[in-house]
What we know:
The chain is mainly alpha-helical.
Amino acid sequence: MFSNILIWFVIVPVIMMIGLACCGNSNMKAIRGVMVAGSIVLLAMSIWLVVDFLGLRAAGDASEMLYVGSWMWYAPLNIHLAVGVDGISVLMLLLSSIIVFAGTFASWKIDPLPKNFFLWFCLLSTGVYGFFISIDMFTMFMFYEVALIPMYLLIGVWGTGRKEYSAMKLTLMLMGGSAFLMLGLLGIYWHGTPEGSVHTWNILEISHNASIDPSWQNLLFCFTFVGFGVLGAMFPFHTWSPDGHACAPTAVSMLHAGVLMKLGGYGCFRIAIFLLPSAAQELSWIFIILTGISVVYGAFSACVQTDLKYINAYSSVSHCGMVLFAILMLNQTAMTGGILQMLSHGLMTALFFALIGMIYGRTHTRDIREMGGMMQILPYLGVCYMIAGFASLGLPGLSGFVAEMTIFFGAFEHSELFYRFFVIAGTSSIVITAVYILRVVGKVILGPVQNEHHRELTDAAWWERLATASLIVCLAGIGFFPNWLNDTIRESFVPIINALNSVF
């Protein structure tokens, strides 16, 4: 087991928690040392994994999943600790590691109870990593829950504003989604194997059997897509997201919006579409309507907000809606764009929340009506915010442009009027996004100074520069060098496209 590198993505955060538990509550040097060392190890492992994965693919290894391992966990229900990754999983692990690394430095001055904060932060990371490496549905669901549970305390204790209300609302809505999801997974478990065969939770085995009756598929697809869609902020189940983002501490907002919400999109195509292709073909139009509303509604809602975090939170509803919208187009180009959007949004929203936290820590306000002239006062943070904004509105050369153009090209492959209507509605979100991004940049970054006391503020410290610079480099890297990402993602969608084509 321990020779499989994927297992170490779960073990390392656990070791970090043990190390933190051994630190004194006020020994910030030791606490930071554990977090920095662990986040660097995770980032190095994920980079090595990407390089090695690409090398194996280039050498001709066309296996559906690589680094596969399976160990019996609970024999009566045939539950295994089964792991494996394709190109999409590998990129999600890399995204998670980058944001954990950046989030560690963004929380350099966290207070109060820094040790407890980082313990819960590591538990959240454990769930995220475990989810992306799992190919056993039960194990995947377990890690999914592990990732959700810490959010209540991380927001309720270390958050701001209406933190107790937001933490409870988030927890109740996501747990409600988990109930739908568990019903869907149990249905797939019972109906996913031929008569007389041993029931299995293994995603690959179920996909190869292709034995779920189409009538059952429709019901199970609704359960699983809604279950994952709640975490992906799909309309009308999105209302937990703005409040949760706005009240969460900086690093939690970064990991929550940057990675945790991606569990929803990842689960939708890995389970709902891959294992239930007949229902996906038949019912996708319903969820295209809902995700289309998310895209436009989120963008319009961001336009009328005055709180920087709420602006970015509603922007996340729009961008995550774009991910689900792309996946539901059920063609390789659009779905590839959806994964690129997951990567792009993960990086840029993490950068946004990091910058908002840094600005708030200095000005003690997030109200754009009380802010202005940040470029004069905090030039480094001002430039970084503009870069994040340009990535969000799809400026060529940054990741947002690559992702959104791929989505819209793929979506336009459908010639039916229904699809074309929602594609046009989706493209309108680009214009709306430009409105609220340029409004904030013009008012907060480039406008006149509103509060003379702000002139005494100091610009970013070294740890803040490290956190933001690492995210900006990745945003520009995707924008300028998207081909290897595009090829890696497209290859991973081949089994899913084959499953969809087998329906006809």
